[in-house]
Amino acid sequence: MVILQEDSPFIGKTMDELKLRSLYRMNVIAIQRYKNFRSQIMAAFGNDQLQAKDILLMDIGIDEDAFAMLCEECKLQRIELKGEYFSTHAKSVGMAEFAVMPETESIGKTVQQLNFRSTYGLSVVGIKREDRILQENLLTESVKAGDVLLVMGVWQKIITLEKYNKDLFLLGMPKEGKQIAPAASQAPYALFAVGLMVLLMISGWIPNVLAALICCLLLGKFRYIDMKSAYDSIHIPSLLLIVDMMPFSTAMQKTGGVSLIVEEFLALTGGESTHYSLVLVGLFALTALVGLFISNTATAILMALIAIEVAKQLGYSPIAFVMVITIASSAAFMTPISSPVNTMVIAPGGYRFIDFVKVGVRFTLLVMSVTIWLVPLLFPL
């Protein structure tokens, strides 16, 4: 690994112009550059121009003495790597194995013709062929069916290669590659955008919808997300569920279904003669019961109407009642089908249905006790 000094002849030139790999047997894996007061690990594309103080992470194919002479000639400052450097950057740069699929266009082409650096910013550092590992003159080596390419570079680009190149099949990736943050360098901007959104919502200066929209626009401005990632993050089933429940709720109101349920509920809880805390307990318990059979999102939409109508008939503020419904529908602990999160952890955790009942009932009672005590204090009736 080297740093480009101020007077290095490499400064201002692109990777393709320097031809470091073919001329000097120095294969740049990634570029570490300080920008906006923080260090960034960048993929080494062929058209990237090098800048002063860039740190080049390289795979070197020459002996120590020749490398020392080259560093002196090209004004490169060598850096001695320590163990903590590898542990710190293991989630940024790494190596993966890709098998060449049979009967593809890549077969017969040389490594240089595959344009890994120009297209993905990656480098092929070796080829497994039968019981051999080829490392010499890789640029001119033709790819054959059954070859396994050892590819090094930034993890994000390795994932991009696996996603979009159908000629190659990813054989394995270390766990560090699966733990990367998609845009870790932009984390401060993301925290700022989310913090601003929360501040705007708490202050009430603008509607919550506008606050969320401003946050989304800032994330796009900071290039934390792009249009595709934003679109992929939309959970269509949840969106359809909410949209479908809205006309159902309207139908319940117009047909008198909500009024009927409210009347029966007030009859069971005692109505106006009952203390408000018991009414809140009843709403919480009813919401938790409904949540055993349908998702918590649908439960919240359905029960919110009932809570508002109960509050109106009893002469209380509906805010506290709806807040109890919100918390109760979120406390979906008792069955695996109460929440998509519960369903997701069944197989990995080896849980049984009864496990959710044993733990979930206790948690639900605990949440209910705290909610009934705290909500009226924060949202006066």
Describe the structure.
The strands form two sheets. Strands 3-2-4-1-5 form a five-stranded antiparallel beta sheet. It has a five-stranded antiparallel beta sheet with strand order 8-7-9-6-10. The longest helix has 26 residues, at 353-378. It is built from 17 helices and ten strands. The termini are far apart. The protein has helices spanning 15-18, 20-24, 64-73, 83-89, 116-120, 155-164, 175-178, 187-203, 208-221, 227-232, 236-254, 257-269, 276-290, 296-314, 318-330, 340-349, 353-378, and strands spanning 2-4, 26-35, 38-43, 55-60, 76-78, 93-100, 123-129, 132-134, 148-154, 168-172. Strand 7 (123-129) and strand 8 form a beta hairpin. The mean pLDDT is 79. The radius of gyration is 30 Å and the shape is elongated. Helix 14 (296-314) runs antiparallel to helix 15 (318-330). The protein has four domains: 2-90, Regulator of K+ conductance, C-terminal domain (Alpha-Beta Plaits), CATH 3.30.70.1450; 93-172, Regulator of K+ conductance, C-terminal domain (Alpha-Beta Plaits, 2-Layer Sandwich), CATH 3.30.70.1450; 186-234; 237-378, no CATH class. It is α+β, with helices and mostly antiparallel strands.
List the helices and strands and how they pair.
Blueprint: E1 2-4, H1 15-18, H2 20-24, E2 26-35, E3 38-43, E4 55-60, H3 64-73, E5 76-78, H4 83-89, E6 93-100, H5 116-120, E7 123-129, E8 132-134, E9 148-154, H6 155-164, E10 168-172, H7 175-178, H8 187-203, H9 208-221, H10 227-232, H11 236-254, H12 257-269, H13 276-290, H14 296-314, H15 318-330, H16 340-349, H17 353-378
Helix pairs in contact: 8-9, 11-14, 12-14, 13-15, 13-17, 14-15, 15-17
